[in-house]
Design goal:
Layout: E1 4-7, H1 13-24, E2 28-33, H2 36-49, E3 54-58, H3 64-72, E4 83-86, H4 102-130, E5 133-138, H5 151-171, E6 176-183, H6 191-195, H7 214-225, E7 235-238
The structure holds NADPH dihydro-nicotinamide-adenine-dinucleotide phosphate.
Length: 257
């Protein structure tokens, strides 16, 4: 099968919005996440609406053995992945360094860094063998600057930025493009709910300004993926108009709604 896009974290937010846009363009999709029910619902929705094939893979990116057996389980016709979107990721907690939770640190490092590494390590040999492929990592403005109480989340996204560059140095000679997108605040995701572990009051961080939407980021990912073969976009750093950087946000009310 041609034009296969594998998307991690397809069950929600940016990953789901990206999945919907690739489906509209007719790509065949491998959608991944831990919540199988959401994946199968999405599979049904997409195969009904579009003339594409969709395969679901349930795995936790923190587990190398789950990633390996999920990829091994792919039927032969799904084995040549053209585009890998490394999107699965999360922030946990927002506390000063000396008061932070060690488990939060482990979860962020294991998901955002080791998960992205392992998935890419498993998928890239087939791209090298085919001398074709594109890996797009979802980084963050947190991969370019550090904000108060953001120490470890920002460290994981700085690691993503370094990994993107490192992959590109090693893989460009095999005709593999490696790109990333670095968004600031994106609403209509579960990011804040996850970060604050379901505390709805704390998760209300988008009410007084107008941030990016998942669809905005998805459009950029699709743009990166659809450039002519000789063009590799290295990074797109993007923020809502009311946001100048991680710490300067015009919170005077939602403009542009
Ligand atoms: P969501 O919480 O809405 O989506 C996160 C996705 O990651 C879910 O589909 C979730 O799937 C998946 N995921 C999380 N942990 C794991 C895991 N251990 N194994 C497998 N899948 C996992 O948040 P966003 O859409 O906002 O996040 C997507 C990416 O965007 C992340 O990398 C995030 O860091 C980045 N980002 C987000 C910003 C924002 O403001 N929202 C800003 C900048 C970057 P499931 O739970 O089913 O496993």
């Amino acid at each position: 099968m041609d034009n296969i896009v594998m998307i991690t974290g397809a069950t929600s937010g940016i990953g789901k919005a990206t999945t919907l846009q690739f489906a509209e363009l007719g790509y065949n999709l491998i959608i991944c996440g831990r919540r199988t029910e959401r994946l199968t619902e999405l599979q049904d929705q997409l195969t009904t609406a579009h003339n594409i094939s969709v395969h679901c893979l349930t795995f936790d990116v923190r587990s190398a053995s789950q990633i390996q057996s999920a990829l091994k389980s792919l039927p032969q016709e799904w084995s040549e992945i053209s585009i890998l979107i490394n999107n699965a990721g999360l922030a946990m907690g927002l506390a000063e360094f000396h008061e932070s939770d060690l488990e939060h640190w482990d979860t962020m490092i294991d998901t955002n860094v080791k998960g992205l590494l392992t998935v890419s390590r498993e998928v890239s040999p087939q791209m090298v063998a085919n001398k074709a492929g594109h890996i797009i990592n979802v980084c963050s403005t947190a991969g370019h600057e550090v904000y108060p109480k953001g120490h470890v989340y920002c460290a994981t996204k700085h690691a993503v930025d370094a990994i993107t560059q490192g992959m590109r140095l090693d893989l460009h000679k095999y005709n593999i493009r490696v790109s990333q997108v670095s968004p600031a605040h994106v609403e209509d995701t579960e990011f804040a709910a996850v970060r604050f572990e379901g505390n709805k009051e704390k998760a209300k961080i988008y009410e007084d300004f107008n941030p990016l939407k998942s669809q905005d980021v998805a459009e950029l990912i699709v743009f990166i993926a659809t450039r002519p073969p000789h063009v590799n976009i290295q990074d797109i750093l993007v923020m809502g108009t009311q946001q100048a950087n991680s710490t300067h946000i015009d919170r005077s009310g939602r403009v542009h709604d």
